[in-house]
Every structure is written in C-alpha cells, then in structure tokens.
Amino acid sequence: MSSEAYHYPLLIKHLLEYGVSYAPDREIVYRDIFRYTWRQFYERVKRLAGALMEIGVKPGMKVGVMDLDTHRYLELYFAVPMVGAVLHTINLRLPPEWILYTIKHAEDSVLVVRDDFVPLVEKVKGMLPPTLKHFIITSDRGEMPRTTLEKSYDYEELLKNAEPVKEFPEFDENTIATLFYTTGTTGLPKGVVFTHRQLFLHTLALQLYLSSFPIESRLDSTDVVMPMVPFFHVHSWGLPYVAGLQGQKIVLLGKYEPDLIFELMRREKVTFSHMVPTLLHMMVYHPKAEEYRDALSRWKVVIGGAALPRGLAKRAMELGIKVTQGYGLSETCPVLTISAFKPHLVGLSEEEKLNIITKTGFPAPLVKLRVVDEEMRDVPRDGKTMGEIVVRAPWTTMEYYKNPEKTAELWRGGWMHTGDVAVWDEDGYVTITGRAKFVIKSGGEWIPPLKLEDILSTHPAVSEVAVIGVPSARWGERPIALIVLKPGYKDKVSEEDFRKFLEGAVEDGRIVKWWIPDKFIFVESLPKTSVGKTDYLKLIEEYSKKMQLP
C-alpha cells in the first residue's frame, strides 16, 4: 500500500461538509425566533469551534450541554466533536442530584447552560468538579443573565468575537465524539460513549434504511424534518446528523408545545418527525387534530422508545399520518431495527400493514441480531417462543464510561445484551414482548405484557394502557391491566367488558386464556420516565405493595 495514499477517517466533519455543499441555502428554523441557512450555520460552527479553542478546550475534553432543542444546540452537535472534544448531552429531566452526578462523573471542562437552568447550576456550584473551568450561557432573550458563575460567557458574544476555524483538524476516527448517561431501574446513571466512526456509520445506515427500503415513513433530502426526540436523548436518534448530511430543512421546537407544533407543521410544511408513542398520542388525540388534518396528512413519523400500540397506529393512519416503528437502545446509538416491508409484503392493505408496522421490525443494515435463551441458543423463529435480544453492530457502545463491571455484564458472551424479551418469526421480524425485568412469570411460564397492551389499545374506550405483574400466592405473579379511558367512557365500560374483549382475542388465536389479566383497573394517568416512556417500575412498585392476588 502506498505511503502517499490518503487514509480517509470517518469523521463527523465530513457529514456536515457534504450537506453544506449540497444544499447550502436550505433553512434551519428555531420556533418563530430564528432562521438561517446551512451555509450560515457552518460559518457559526466555525466560529463556535474557534471560541471553544480560545477558552482552552482541547481534544478529549468534555463539553456538557444543558439546553432545549435549539439551533445553538445543533451547532454544538457538530462544533464540539469536530475539534476533537467530547459532547456531553445532559438529560434535563433527571433529578438535580443525578444531573450533578453526570457532570462530575464525566469531568466536564465547559458547561453550556441555557439561562433557564443557570439558577440550578448556581445552587450546586460548590459541588461541581475541579475540571469545570468555564460556563457559556445561552438565551433567547437577547442578553446574558446576571450570574454568580465565574468565567461565564455569553454564547452569542463569544461567537461574534471569535476567530473562525479555517479548516477542521483530522484525527483518528475512533476518537470519542459523544457521551451521555442512561438511567436503568436501579443504581446511578451509566455513561455511554460513541466515536466518530460509530456515529458516521450509524448516520449512513439509518439514512440508507429510511430511503432505500419500502417503509411507510420514507425520508429523503427533500423532506422537512422536525425532531421530537430531545437532543439530549441518544443524539435525538441520530436524525440531526442525517439532516446535516443531506442539508435538509430542519425545524427545531425548543419546548414541545402542541399548539406551536401544529402551527409550525402547517407553516413550515413539515413532513417528517420521530418520537415516542406518548407524543404521538398527544398529537392525534389533541382537540385541534382535525383542524390541522391538512398538515397531519403529509406527516411521516418514526416511533421508538416504546412499543407502538395498534390502536394508536390506527388512529394516526385515520388522520393520514404514515407511521413506522423503530427500535434501539441508548447503548446502540440507537437504531437496530425498523418495520420495513420485505419484498413479498409490499402492497398490503391498510389493515394488513398494521401487522408489520406494529412489529419491532427487521434489523437495519450491518446489524447482527439474535433472540436467545438463557444458554445463548437461538430460540425458534415461530413467533411464539420468547428469548432475549442480543446484538452486534458497528455503532454499539464499547463500554459504560469508567464502569468495567457493568461493561462486562453488558457484553457477556461477546454479544450486547439488550434486556428486551422478544419473539421472532420466519421472516426475521422481531416483536418485543417486554423488558426482562418486567415480563410476567406466572406458573413458571412467561406472559408478554406488550402483546396484551397492543390488543387492549384497539378497544374504542382505551386511551392508554399498561399491563404489569403483581404477586400471586398460587402462581408467583399474575397480570393486571391499568387503563386510562378516553373522555366520555368513564361510566360506559366495566372490567367485564375488557375481559370479554380479550376473550375474543383468545378465540382468534392471538393469545391464550390464562394470559388474560386478573384485574382491570381504571386510572386517571400513567406515570412517565424522563424520556416520556411509561414508568413500569413505578407502577410495579406501587401495585405490588398494595395488591396480593390469590
């Protein structure tokens, strides 16, 4: 091999450089506050990079960010890793003590803080790590707030006075680019890291899957993208980097407010979003949904983070929304599967499409996925036998940051263990039946709560539903269903109605009779986690304490 040959490192800068050259005049829109082009964005990224280096940011240093989904956050997505530093996206929905823990554990050197969160940081400034030397304050108000934080800078002033980077450096593609913390059911948050190479390959594979395979929610460079997964959560599923590669028009929401979302969708002609099911539920059952049917009818949505209930998917389709389900974890960057249609399934009816859309999906290119038993043997592809999903992919995190014990547990046997229990069918589609921690074991056999939730979600009275296991003297555990009713149904349905509804599913062969929950409990709402998923742990803790079944 010639020593003169150029060895092309897979770096984030190459994604952005291509998008800017392809569509320099497409817009980035932040609410009704700010808009500019990708060309102007790139110039600000150069200034931001210069500013970071001027205050002493060096390769390998961590830059923590506490912001909403703004154009400034998008600038940080590129500028920080492009100078060789590490972007630490801080989960704003964590308890304050956990936010402090992640800043200390990451050993952040710079903290970029939205003005709304400055008081929170000021309260704990005496407990911040000694590595943290600089604070950069962002604001939509046009001026920097007064603060007791020393060595603090106004974001916009910093950019205005900075010398822009003329050319971004090249370095090893295995350099760490991002760090964020994932929360489990127990213990402190765990840090996951991703390299430039991993993010680069994830971006290419995600875009390939969304544009080249038959799915309902196709994405190409002409789409107008409105992310509805927070920027702090798993790179907003990688869509900001896809938008940078393609120079797509992107609409940023800051806070997720339904009235503004509807208006931006109509005004900016939004065509593509990604989100958890609870956000889609909020949109399609909103009182203004029918009023904005014109905007909704051109909307393509990818759902992830939790199972897509059949009833919710059907409601979305009734409004003209095209829905696709995806799956992944914080540890997998995140995308592993998408509910694409294999060749022999193209051309299905709308009702038949629901059978594929509500599956967890088929593995994305370069993802090796198995469903295994406790001995790491593949379970039969019969759509019935449950096992744990284990994976290998070029973008799965190699480690929990500074946590070798948990890393070894994650990667035992040379496969990443997801903790998700699923079945797979003869076509290779997987369908998650629950988390290993939450799958109900009754009489020595597993009961899949997500399957029951999926069926119950199609009942006309159901708005949301969660199925959990509670202690049983005879069976070890038995399922109960917690149901949020739609408005107007409070006195029109009973437990017996839902029992008979599931008995119909037994007759159809979709479930077996002993899976039917012992109780159906009507609740006002279901608790949610920091990323908008149903908080099953909280429900299990609450109902296990106050309920013991025979």
Fold topology:
Elements: H1 12-22, E1 27-30, E2 34-37, H2 38-54, E3 62-66, H3 71-82, E4 86-89, H4 96-106, E5 108-114, H5 118-123, E6 134-138, E7 152-154, H6 155-161, E8 176-182, E9 190-195, H7 196-212, E10 224-225, H8 239-246, E11 249-252, H9 258-268, E12 272-275, H10 277-284, H11 293-296, E13 300-303, H12 310-318, E14 322-328, E15 335-338, H13 350-357, E16 362-363, E17 368-372, E18 387-392, H14 404-410, E19 416-424, E20 430-435, E21 440-442, E22 445-447, H15 449-456, E23 462-472, E24 476-485, H16 495-507, E25 519-522, H17 536-546
Parallel strand pairs: 1-11, 3-4, 3-5, 4-8, 5-6, 6-7, 10-11, 12-13, 13-14, 24-25
Antiparallel strand pairs: 1-2, 8-9, 14-15, 15-16, 17-18, 18-19, 19-20, 21-22, 23-24
